Amino acid sequence: MLMLRLRERARAIDGSGGDGGQDLCEHTENGELLIYEEKSFTGRMNQVRRRQVVRSLVSAARHQPDHWDLLVPIDHNPAELRWFEGLREEFPFVRHWRGRSWLDGKFAAHPDLVRYALQESGDYILERIAEARAERDVLLGGLPDYLERASALHARAQEICPHYAVRSTLGSSGQTAVHLTPKAPSPGEQAAIRFVGRIRFPAGDDREEERRRLFEETMRFGGEVELAADNLTGMRLTGPAGLGLEQLSLGGVRITSPRQEVTPPLHGQLVLKRQSGVPLTSLPVTFTEKVTGTEGGTLHGHDVTGVMRVRLRYHLRDRSGALTFSFELDQPVLPQTVVPVLRLIAHSLPGNVMELVLAGANTPGVQALISAGMAPPGWKDNEAQFWADAFDDLGRLQSRTGHYFPLPEDFSRQDVRDVREMIALLDGDENVLTGDTVSVGIESAEALDQLAEAAASLSRVTVGYASLVFALGEHQIDLGPCTEAYTMDEILNMSEARTELAAHGHTTVHMRLARHIPAVRYLGDEPPQ
C-alpha cells in the first residue's frame, strides 16, 4: 500500500497461484518496466532468505525488467550489501535495497497507513474512547475547543481508510455531506466504490422522463446527472472495509464524468455556407476538455472570441455527432468581440449548411443541413444581423476616434442611429436634421429687425458650436466643432416676440423651416464639398 501511494503508476499483482516474481510492477512514462519485490523478513538476511530472493529474481528476469528493487524491513550490514551487489553480475537490472530506515522515513509521511495496520491495538482503541468522550463534553473553551476537536476529528477521519481522504460539509438545510477523494490517482479494483442494484424512473412523469434521458446520455457520452431517492430504491453501496458504506442509505446521487484536458488542444473551423457551397461566414473554435462514456464522448470548447461555448458529442459506433452552442457575456467586452458570433447566428438559417473542419485531420470536414435557427427566443427575423452591423459600426467609430470602451449594457436602437450619424459626419457627410421648426434666441431689437427683414424671403441661418458631443451610456464622444444650417420661409411669432423683447430685453423667435430644403449638420465651419 505504501508503494502504491508513492508510485502513481505502480500496480499490485495478485499473488494467488504465483505472482511470477513481481509483487508490484510499474511501467514508467519512458516505457521502462520496474519490478518491486517485497519480503517481510526481520532479523538478518540468512542463506535461506537469500535463496528466496534469488528465486524471485529468476522469475522476474522472465519479464525482462529495466530495474528491480528489493523492499525488506532490514538495514543491511556490510556482508549483506556485498551479497546484494554481487547479484548484478547475473542480474544487471538489480537496483536498490530499500531497508528498514528507508521504509520508516516513508511511513512517517503517511501515518494513516500505520494506523490502518494497527487499528486493533489497545492503545489505538483507548485513544478513540478518549476522543469519543471529548465529543460529548460541553465546549467550555469556546471556539478554541471547537477548532482543536474539529482538527483532531478531521485527522482521525483520514485514518478510516487508506484509499480515500474524507472531508465533510454542511448543506443549506443542515444535512452533512461527506466527500471521499482517492488518495492515489487510481484506487484500484479492491478499493473501488460501487453502486449495486437497479435505477428506476417512474412512468408518466415528464420530469422523470427528462431525468432518464439525461442519465442515459451521461452514461453513453459523459456529463452530469442527479438522481433522487425515488430513483435509487433497492440500491446499496459497497466499498473498502472501514468506510461502512454498506450501512448508509442513499438519499441522492450526483454522477459526474471527470473532465480530461485535451492535450494539445484540438483546433477547428466552423463554416457556414449555402447549399451551393458559397461560404457565408466562419469562426475558429478550440476544444480543450473532454468527457467519455460507454458509447462515445463529449468535447467541450469555445470560439476564438470566448463568447460562444461549443460542445461536440460524438458517437463512436455510427460515427455521428451533435453540436451544441451557448452564448454568454460574463465580463465586459469590446463591441468588435461579439460581431463574429452574431454573424454566425444571423447566417444559421434553415436551408444553409454548417461544417466543422478539424485542423490536421486527414478526413474531410463533417457537415449537416441546418434545420432550425440559432437565434435566441424572442428575436425577430434579421435581428442578429441588425445587431452585428450595429456593433460593427460602434467598433469602427471607436477606431476612428481612438476612444475605446466596453459594449454598453443599455445600448439601444437610438444609440445605433447616433453611431451611424457620427460615422457619416467623420466621413465628411452631412446629417439631415429632423423637425419642422427651429427656435432662435434674440437679445436686441436690431437683431430682431434683421431677422424680420430676412424672413421676407427664403433665408439661411447657420449656428456654430465649439464641440459636438454624443453620449453612449456613461461614455461621451467629442467630435469637435460643428455647424448647423437652417433654411426658413416664415417667422411664426413675430408680434409676440417684439412684445416680449420690449418687456424683458430678450425673446425667442420660432421659425418654420422650408419644406424642400432640409436642415443639416456638418463638422467644422465649412460645408462639405
Brief digest:
The protein is an alpha+beta fold.
SSE inventory with pairings:
Elements: H1 2-6, E1 10-12, E2 24-27, E3 33-38, H2 47-61, E4 67-71, H3 78-86, E5 94-98, H4 100-108, H5 111-117, H6 122-136, H7 143-157, E6 164-170, E7 176-182, E8 194-196, H8 206-221, E9 224-228, E10 236-238, E11 252-256, E12 260-273, E13 279-292, E14 296-303, E15 308-315, E16 320-327, H9 335-347, E17 353-358, E18 366-369, H10 383-401, H11 413-426, E19 431-432, E20 437-442, H12 445-454, E21 459-465, E22 469-472, E23 475-478, E24 482-491, H13 494-504, E25 507-513, E26 520-523
Helix pairs in contact: 9-10, 10-11
Which features does this protein show?
single chain, alpha+beta, seven-stranded antiparallel beta sheet, 26 strands, 30% helix, elongated
Class of secondary structure makeup: alpha+beta
| Cα separation of the termini | 88 Å
What is the mean predicted local confidence, pLDDT?
86
Strand order of the largest sheet: 16-15-14-13-12-17-18
Looking at the chains present, what oligomeric state does this protein adopt? single chain
Number of strand segments? 26
For the sheet with most strands, the description reads: 7 strands, antiparallel
- Which of globular, elongated, flat, extended, rod-shaped describes the shape? elongated
